[in-house]
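Posting this for the archive.
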Amino acid sequence: MKTDKEKLGWIEYDLFEKFPQLNCKTYLRHGGFSKEPFATLNVSDEIGDHPDSVKANRELIKKDLQAGYLVFAKQRHGDNLIEVTKDNLNSIGEADGLYTKEKNLALAITHADCQAAVFYAPKQNVLAVVHAGWKGLILNIYQKMVQTLKDKYQIEPGELLVSISPSLCPKHAEFKNYKEEFPEEFWPFQNQEKPKHFNLWKVAIMQLTKAGVKEDQIEVAQSCTFCEEQDFYSHRRSKPTGRHATAAVLL
């Protein structure tokens, strides 16, 4: 982790260290232009922050990633996936997953408690990003992305590397109505010390491995957005609040 309260801070993933052609970061809440309660590196334009601040924050991230473009979708806690090319990057609509094989197009997820996952296929040099809150996990959006990459680019699941951003830890992922909301295959991941709290990190690993991704090629950031207020926004902890960007680009 690299962090400074007055400068950009971010998390990088060990999984991608040996691939200089991929630049992937989860940005912390520092070093931007937004005022409270969005201070300071909020990248969402849908939560009431000043548009100029959001635009400036996004420009900071684009420059830091050395990208020509920084692409966001309108996330809706669904499972729609969109391929991004230079031909459609200015008309991306509603989606919770983006993928590309083109260089210089940074794909970004906004999040505060939800998981932001980055998929990378080194052999084919293909990149994807996914937003997965609990609703996305129920829809099994990870499995859908794995299948989409296989269908579109002939990428076998075992070739994929997947990182998952800081998100709610088992102490704070509470779901009082889980019996109505969650499929039964989620129930074993309940935190025995805190009933109705779930380990969504392990749920994600379960879904990815069932889809064919190798467990040793999955990296989950062991950081909780709720617990670590200094560095992370948390929608469950503070309302309103900002949104992080997890972003990646093929160089």
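The chain has five helices and twelve strands. The chain has one domain: 2-168+222-250.
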